[in-house]
């Protein structure tokens, strides 16, 4: 078990006129190597939840155990937590500050107290992994690059810390379709190559449907639904009620099914939908 | 005069420090009629934003001409009139709001135009009503959501009584509900108040709502037409690094497999209709 | 999380003091401060205290808020009191170890401390009853006549408004950057002064870059809305003087006169 969350509750500004309960008694388990999609309306508690996972926030009550380490204990070193859990915030390119790309990516590993040699190995691997040519870019200023490239440098900065769990908060925000596809491809290959546990926060149901093993749906500080994408996206009405949707393709299949067509309504991708429809039409032709 | 905006053989070239010159817009010609809703799509770097900034004279052409209601943008004496006719809403909701409370920000434009205080008050009231933000008039902008901030920005432009609004990726930084708020407002302004809209976006579901779609790539217009015509060209759009609605892509794939349905299906309902015939 | 944090100490309530024209309040505060420094005898403080007392009552701001303004400056008041009471030469009335307390020292200490306290409370009253927007408008209008000699009144006011507008936004951004760097193992809390200063680089560099970018984008947005400086610009909210402003002005000047008279006689 990679991440165990037990009865996590978080209250902002307790005992003040601004008191709000952001997370209500959440209990969750995430397996090692799972690829999780975390979805929810703005204000559902997603940000609060992920910030607990790397120790930026401490629970009001409850426990969080990551790969055997109870990070909610009083005496836990923050360094230990950050070694285990890497968090990439929205618009991560806004945190770049160093003179060279090498130095910026090296910031994380340096803070972990690693040797020069180890740092270099990791920085090289991370920069190559995000698809940038190490030798060409290492001495350049991060601010010379385009927006999409800077974002990749920022992500490399977190990947270089070799976390066991990688959390990405809307990594495709503000990118065009090509940029979005590239980043998601890289996340997918990271998950496969390093067998990291990955938590992806996203607003795009289509992206989530294509990538994740399991979805966690948050609403008003609680877990409204969890399960494999096929299962979760069946609950169209519930999802719409809480301000979310399903992939366009899934809507299509549901409507076809409702019109009486003999197809499975749980297609999540265009490929699956095509197959289902062809099968149905093929059967029809035979009649 | 029919044309709100007329762009003739526009060329824009610039040099950044110590590097070669970049040709951001390469000989673009375009006409936008009064009351039209035009969407310009393209991946980042295609030149769409650069093109947009020529319409309200934030950028001046290196070659070619841009006319807004007949006024030449390269003529400095026209600049302020042009910017009142063609208002602009930008991508970052925060970096457009100047004042410490909403109604003061909406008043900013009219104040710059030297409008009398009483008239400003009524314009601010009307503008905030148009975008459904009247109840937030005394709030500080930092308390608003992204979608609300963009609506305030739109109100700030409407208060100047423009004929045309250019929106440069106004929803790129918003969540789905914010995007919905902004698109509904924009559509309403176009339909009910006949304001010409030029909407720059890379979200395809926003472009399908337009009267006309223009696709840009490397500083040139590569495709142009009604949404149906443009989105039916699935292969081309994908090669350009753009998206199509999932149902449109599915239609394209089914047609390749011999299923007899039209190429230009844009919505779920249309697909259902054609498949069930 | 950021809720309705008001910048400065503005206490929003409808009172006669709140409704005064900000120009009048700013000038009255200057006159008040001038009067405070002219005072020579304790009796004059009583005129000022009466004036202040009336203003506080009329302002409907709870006294606790007034006192709050004193808290951060408590150390300075204490030091002022201490230095004067122990360092003034004169007739010794008490001895505290190596330190002498003199009659003159006692007088000076109380005198200076009173001046300081009245100063702080008086200026607090200004910011408690005048919103940041009103203050900027007031300052702009007061500086306007000096435009002829080159004072950029409008530009200063615009700068102040924009700064006020972006303070909450920049605070939020600082928070985000801090969290992002902490997620990469940055430590802003431990270490000596030098270490902590160095650790601010990953916070300040992105913040400055972001601020410059914002400024650039904001300038473009302002130009797109036809901003071209203060010439021929109108204002939606215009400042106008009313009867109450004249009354307040007269009262303030009366107090100043009383203090001057007391000093001369």
Mind summarizing the main beta sheet of chain B?
Answer: 6 strands, mixed
**Structure summary, number of beta strands of chain A:** 10
Structural class of chain B: alpha/beta
H/E element order of chain A: EEEHEEHEHHHHEHEHEEHHHH
Strand content of chain B: 15-25%
Shape of chain A: globular
- Mean pLDDT score of chain A, rounded? 89
- Poorly predicted runs of chain B: none
How is the largest sheet of chain B built, in terms of strand order?
6-7-8-3-9-10
The radius of gyration of chain B is 20 Å
Number of helices of chain B: 11
Provide the β-strand percentage band of chain A.
15-25%
State the helix count of chain A: 12
| Biggest chain-to-chain interface with counts | B-C, 41 and 32 residues
Terminal-residue CA separation of chain A: 51 Å
- Span from first to last CA of chain B? 45 Å
Quaternary state of the chains: heterotrimer
Let me know the average pLDDT of chain B.
93
Radius of gyration of chain A over all CA atoms, rounded = 21 Å
Brief overview:
The complex is a heterotrimer of chains A (287), B (277) and C (265). With 287 residues, chain A is an alpha/beta fold. Chain A is built from twelve helices and ten strands.
């Amino acid at each position: 078990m990679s991440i165990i969350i037990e009865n996590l509750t978080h209250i902002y500004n307790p005992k003040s006129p601004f008191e709000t309960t952001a997370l209500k008694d959440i209990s969750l388990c995430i397996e090692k190597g799972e690829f999780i999609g975390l979805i929810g309306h703005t204000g559902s508690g997603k940000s609060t939840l992920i910030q607990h996972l790397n120790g930026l926030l401490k629970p009001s009550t409850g426990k969080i155990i990551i790969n055997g380490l109870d990070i909610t204990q009083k005496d836990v070193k923050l360094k230990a937590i950050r070694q285990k859990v890497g968090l990439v915030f929205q618009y991560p390119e806004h945190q770049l500050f160093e003179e060279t790309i090498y130095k910026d990516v090296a910031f994380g590993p340096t803070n972990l107290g690693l040797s020069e040699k180890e740092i270099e190995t990791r920085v090289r691997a991370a920069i190559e992994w995000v698809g940038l040519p190490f030798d060409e870019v290492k001495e350049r200023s991060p601010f010379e690059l385009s927006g999409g490239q800077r974002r990749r440098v920022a992500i490399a900065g977190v990947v270089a810390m070799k976390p066991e769990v990688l959390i990405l908060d809307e990594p495709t925000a503000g990118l065009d379709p090509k940029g979005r596809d590239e980043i998601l491809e890289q996340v997918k290959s990271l998950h496969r190559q390093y067998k990291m546990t990955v938590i992806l926060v996203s607003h795009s149901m289509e992206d989530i449907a294509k990538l994740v093993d399991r979805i966690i749906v948050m609403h008003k500080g609680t877990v409204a639904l969890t399960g494999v994408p096929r299962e979760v996206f069946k609950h169209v009405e519930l999802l719409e009620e809480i301000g979310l949707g399903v992939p366009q393709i899934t809507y299509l299949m549901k409507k076809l099914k409702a019109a009486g067509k003999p197809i499975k309504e749980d297609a999540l991708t265009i490929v699956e939908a095509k197959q289902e429809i062809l099968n149905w039409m093929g059967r029809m032709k035979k009649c | 005069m029919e044309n709100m905006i007329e762009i003739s053989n526009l060329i824009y070239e610039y040099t950044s420090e110590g590097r070669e010159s970049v040709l951001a817009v390469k000989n673009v010609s375009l006409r936008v009629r009064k009351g039209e809703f035009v969407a310009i799509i393209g991946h980042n770097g295609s030149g769409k934003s650069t093109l947009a900034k020529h319409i309200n004279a934030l950028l001046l052409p290196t070659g070619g001409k841009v006319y807004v209601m007949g006024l030449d943008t390269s003529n400095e004496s026209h600049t302020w009139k042009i910017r009142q006719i063609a208002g602009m809403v930008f991508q970052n909701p925060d970096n457009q709001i100047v004042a410490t409370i909403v109604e003061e920000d909406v008043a900013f434009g009219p104040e710059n135009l030297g409008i009398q205080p009483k008239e400003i008050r009524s314009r601010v009231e009307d503008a905030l009503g148009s975008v459904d933000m009247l109840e937030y008039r005394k709030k500080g902008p930092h308390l608003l959501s992204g979608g609300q901030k963009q609506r305030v920005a739109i109100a700030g432009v409407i208060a100047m009584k423009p004929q045309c609004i250019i929106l440069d990726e106004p929803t790129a930084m918003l969540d789905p509900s914010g995007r919905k708020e902004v698109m509904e407002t924009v559509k309403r302004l176009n339909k009910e108040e006949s304001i010409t809209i030029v909407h720059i976006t890379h979200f395809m579901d926003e472009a399908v709502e337009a009267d006309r779609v223009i696709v840009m790539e490397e500083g040139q217009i590569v495709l142009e037409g009604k949404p149906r015509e443009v989105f039916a060209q699935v292969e081309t759009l994908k090669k350009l690094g753009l998206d199509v609605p999932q149902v449109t892509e599915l239609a394209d794939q089914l047609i390749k497999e011999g299923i007899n349905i039209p190429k230009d299906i844009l919505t779920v309902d249309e697909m259902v209709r054609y498949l069930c015939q | 999380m950021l809720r309705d944090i008001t910048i400065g100490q503005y206490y929003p309530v409808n009172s006669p003091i709140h409704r005064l024209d900000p120009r009048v309040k700013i000038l009255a505060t200057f006159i008040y401060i001038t009067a405070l420094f002219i005072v020579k005898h304790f009796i004059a403080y009583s005129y000022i205290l009466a004036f202040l007392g009336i203003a506080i009552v009329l302002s409907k701001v709870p006294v606790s808020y007034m006192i709050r303004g004193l808290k951060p400056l408590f150390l300075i008041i204490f030091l002022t009191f201490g230095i004067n009471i122990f360092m003034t030469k004169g007739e010794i009335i008490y001895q505290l170890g190596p330190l002498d307390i003199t009659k003159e020292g006692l007088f000076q200490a109380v005198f200076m401390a009173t001046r300081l306290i009245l100063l702080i409370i008086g200026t607090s009253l200004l910011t408690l009853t005048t919103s940041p927007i009103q203050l900027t408008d007031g300052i702009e209008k007061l500086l306007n006549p000096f435009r002829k000699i080159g004072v950029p009144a409008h530009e200063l006011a615009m700068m102040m408004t924009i700064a006020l507008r972006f303070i909450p936004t920049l605070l939020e951004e600082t928070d985000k950057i801090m969290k992002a760097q902490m997620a990469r193992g940055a430590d802003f809390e431990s270490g000596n002064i030098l270490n902590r200063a160095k650790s601010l680089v990953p916070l300040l560099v992105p913040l400055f870059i972001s601020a410059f970018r914002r400024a650039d984008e904001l300038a473009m947005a302002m130009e797109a809305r036809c901003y071209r400086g203060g010439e021929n610009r109108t204002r939606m909210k215009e400042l106008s003087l009313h009867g109450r402003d004249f009354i307040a002005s007269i009262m303030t000047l009366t107090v100043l006169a009383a203090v001057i008279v007391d000093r001369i006689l």
